[in-house]
Amino acid sequence: MRKILHIDMDAFYASVEQRDDPSLRGRPVVVAWRGARSVVCAASYEARKFGVRSAMPAVRAERLCPQAVFVPPDFVRYKAVSRQVREIFLRHTDLVEPLSLDEAYLDVTAPKSELPSATAIAETIRAQIRDETALTASAGVAPNKFLAKIASDWNKPDGQFVIRPAQVEAFLMPLPVARIPGVGKVMQAKLAELGIDTVGDLRAFALEDLEARFGSFGARLYRRARGIDERPVEPNQPVQSISAEDTFERDLPLSEIEPTIRRLAEKTWQAAAKTERVGRTVVLKLKTAQFRILTRSHTPEAPPASLQQFVDIALSLRHRVDLAEDTRYRLVGVGLGGFRDRNLAPQAALFETDTEDGGSRSR
Predict the structure, then answer these.
(1) Residues 125-146 pLDDT 10s
(2) Any catalytic annotation for residue 103?
């Protein structure tokens, strides 16, 4: 039985800003560039009371909370604090899997410290973060990653929640199915059509039924509804994908986005060159003015060997966008995925996906 922690810094970027500028403390802080196309990177808890959330358009955040203080993000500073927090984690276990700058999984089944329990380790880590960074973190303690992540959100901010093995079933049954990772609005609506609103409702369905309706994701739903998650904490996860994206100052037709694709492709290629692995799949991402998201991807027989090849493939993916010519786009992204070790032979594949509100299809 594993002992897993999920540690999540509280309103991380905004909290760093409030810590470093005393005039911001107690005020609604929104970390974002101002502008019609900007999105919120983080919001303080004072701003969240007005409905401001991460990834929300900055103009909407300003409407919801006119008195908010907008602060441009400073990722160099946030990364420095993140490294500080990571060093605290490593005092207790080498099995640390960062998810982002502000959260990580820790496996403390066999900890480096002599603390008596996973609960005590989580309490100590939170106290050390508070003492050494003047910031707060919340923690979830559970037998696996899935449950630990849910638990860390239970008593936010500056809180902790423990799910013991004997408590798993009672804890999960009343939860909305939306708490299961991967269940977005589209999947939630599909499950509601089957009368599934809670995890308890989901548990009434057999594995075969869920797989027949939802494929491999149905099998995942079946396992999560029973609190099953066998994924280990992986401290040194290899790069799987690299991408760059940009939001236009005004919505553009497909015919006008070539310069941006070239610029983003170069940025992605330079980042990929710093890794020791090889990316094989080229991805073009588009978001329409109506916020519909589309991706077009191609995996050639051999990985792109040069920036020019990468750019050419990215540009060619525009021809697989089958929306009307007068469609306007607010965002474009270019990515490189399917990373493999250099000594692994590539396999040919070709696929496209079209997603809208979390749905997807392959063809």
Answers:
(1) 999 999 999 999 999 999 999 9
(2) yes
Helix (H) or strand (E) holding 296: strand 293-299
pLDDT in tens, 199-242: 999 999 999 999 999 998 899 999 999 999 999 998 977 778 89
Report the candidate in 247, 248, 251 with the shortest Cα–Cα distance to residue 327. 251
pTM of structure = 0.74
| Each residue's pLDDT tens digit, 145-158 | 999 999 999 999 99
What structural domains and CATH numbers belong to the chain?
A: 4-12+76-168 (3.30.70.270), 18-74 (3.40.1170.60), 173-225 (1.10.150.20), 241-354 (3.30.1490.100)
251 is an annotated ligand-binding site residue? no
Distances (CA, A) of 192 to 178, 181, 241: 11, 16, 33
The answer to the question of whether 197 is labelled as a binding residue is: no
Give the H/E segment covering residue 335. Answer: strand 328-337
Q: Contact, 2 vs 109, CB < 8 A?
A: yes
Look at phi and psi of residue 212 and say left if phi exceeds 0, alpha if psi is from -120 to 50, else beta: alpha
Look up residue 198 and give its DSSP letter: B
Catalytic residue among 17, 97, 103, 266: 103
